[in-house]
Sequence to fold (278 residues):
Amino acid sequence: MKAKAQLRDNFLFILLLVLSIVFLAPILIVLMNSFKGRFFIVDTPFDLPNGETFASITNYVNGIQKTGFIQAFGYSLFITVCSVVVIVLFTSMTAWYITRVKSRFNSVLYYLFLFSMIVPFQMVMFTMSKMANILHLDNPVGIIVIYLGFGTGLSVFIFSGFVKGIPLNIEEAATIDGCSPIQTFFLIVFPILKPAAITVAILNAMWVWNDYLLPYLVIGSNYKTIPIAVQYLRGGYGSQDMGAMMAMLVLAILPVVIFYLSCQKYIIKGAVAGAVKG
Fold:
């Protein structure tokens, strides 16, 4: 039995190691090519930079100058942070309400949130962009409202599952002590929801930060986010500065990687709690 268990563990280790290499390889290739001259990236994409191909930080300097990266970074940071805060705040309150207040309307509302998770974005993108223009949401502040709408389904699902695992006696005790519903939520419930809140924040931060299509349709080139700014490195007739593009991709994924690594321990805990059935 020990031999079989050891063999199984070795197989799982090798399998996970191979999967890790497969997932990390694209990031390492982009990082490696960000320090090469633009003409060497196509010819030797998998070779390490050497004395001939090494371009120092030239690609980073060119990319920042050509794309207006600093301004794009500011727009991306503002939209991402505000969207995540709004999504976490409003969806946690919504999930708590529809979980604790049992009614036919809340049940229908909950399933509508779940249904929104399976509706492809392509089905609503043209109507959504038109309505955003009519309602004057085609700006960095207005797009936060749109992200709230698209991020509600999964977030409410995760929070609802977590709320179902919170003993109702805790909230009843707070009510007896004189807490209003708002005080009960922010002083009692929301601190308990911390693992789920961090999970929702990570998932939505990665989505909003890397999203290209929604900002392109809603705010276009007036307020370029990082994905849109990187796309502008593609010139006419198929020409593109591959070196600068690789450098900007590295700078684009770096904040998300740091944020993810600093909060990853909460993901599984929050995701599992969100799958609880009640």
